Amino acid sequence: MSPLEVWLDERVVGTCVIETRPGFQYASLTFTYDPAWLSDTQAFPFSPDLPLVRGPLTPAPHRSTFLAFDDAAPDRWGRRLLEADMRRAAKQRAERFGSPSEIDLLLAVSDDTRQGALRFRRDGQFLAPRHTRAGVGDLARLAAAADRFADTGEVDEGVQELIGVGSSPGGAQPKAWIQDHEGAMHLAKFPRTSDIGDISAWEMTVVRLQERAGIQVQPSTTIRLGPDRSIFLTRRFDRDGARRIPFMSFRTAFQTSEYEHPDYATLAARVASISGRPDADAAELFSRAAMVAMVNNIDDHMRNHGLLHRGSRGWQLAPSFDVNPSRRGASDTPLTPEDDPADRDIRLLLERCDAFRLTREHAVERLRAVDAAVSHWREDAVASGVEPEALDFMAPAFDGPNRAIAAGLTTRRPTTLPPARTAQKTTTPNPPPAVVAAPSSGDVWVRPHARRGRLVEGHFRRRRNR
């Protein structure tokens, strides 16, 4: 089999070979950077497991592909579509169907709609060569096809069209990439028959609230299908006309597993360490953390955050996406190391404001801005297509205790930690920066700081006049 060329938008950046390594049962990819890419001063690694070095690179022992390729591969919805189509094709050939490998699924995604800027080419042809394109006028038909596939799992002619435009978006909700009348590409998210209420309208509501709070979001809208059913349509952030913009999820950037959920304070520090605009991105993540707490977004896992590579400006936070209110349930992602994600408390963000590169005063301003934005949730929900009689049903998502906490915030730093569950954490080696004096000893808390170019962790210092 001929080597697989790896492209970044319109430029070849390396080659892959599919091979079985000694001692391994399954095939995996071996990647080698193109010398011209390595010698380019603007070159950058696509993920932590693909450092800019000469010679072949192999995935971690438990993997068959690289982290960067995960963001270009299908997620749950796309996998279901592709596997069903492969099963149908095997049946037509009177062959036994075998479960596809991660490499098979990666290369089966349509090149036109693949997420991010990575592309794969073999023998002069980009993979996969599906040429199906859909426009706004096709949305109702695609939504009906998504309903049929969700109900039956069978691939008919309409579902085959959906495969070409819907196999790359991540997540479990039915989706498709479509183009508007000007050729710009958008992500369409379809409702499911099992949905309670118009979830597209509620997602649009939170987009409006984020705009009010100054959080980066993409232009979005909804298209009505019927009572309590609409399509959420948002412009793709990994496209600028025909140009593809490199994308890296937090899960890839920080090498987390599916079951790891770093807190937002830790994520802010990690983002700042690789961002081309560390102060702005860390502060932006503070506002997003406050928003997910105030609308009870419980699906803020590491694939639902990401970074875009902006050329000479480096990696920067991608616009916020996939933020949905939930009237009940809890997230797995804490606000800070001390937080209980089942009972989020935005005061903990203030205690860790240094991690977000904010002063307490600026942190309070941001919390107040988010609270002020969320206070408009009812009017924004109606403007987004939510029926007025459905507002009270979703009120628990927006009118939780953190709204009341935000109303009582002051810029003065307290000398004790507010909630009792947080105080239990002061036994750790590095207590939160809000603690300025040890209650029992009077020792003074020294915040984390730099000394002679090295980071000094936070610690208690004994008073000299004792």
TrEMBL record:
Keywords in alphabetical order, please: Kinase, Transferase
| Residue numbers spanned by region Disordered | 322-342, 413-440
Where does the HipA N-terminal subdomain domain lie? 4-120
Q: Name one Pfam family in it.
A: Couple_hipA
Query: What segments bear the compositional bias annotation Low complexity?
Result: 413-428
Q: Which residues form the signal peptide?
A: none
Spell out the GO cellular component terms annotated for this protein, sorted alphabetically and separated by semicolons. cytosol
**The HipA-like C-terminal domain covers which part of the protein?**
167-377
Which terms in the Gene Ontology molecular function aspect does this entry carry?
protein serine/threonine kinase activity
What family classification does the UniProt entry report for this protein? Belongs to the HipA Ser/Thr kinase family.
PANTHER family listed in its UniProt record: SERINE/THREONINE-PROTEIN KINASE TOXIN HIPA, TOXIN YJJJ
Q: What is this protein called?
A: Phosphatidylinositol kinase
Source organism per UniProt: Tersicoccus phoenicis
Q: What is the lineage of its organism?
A: Bacteria, Bacillati, Actinomycetota, Actinomycetes, Micrococcales
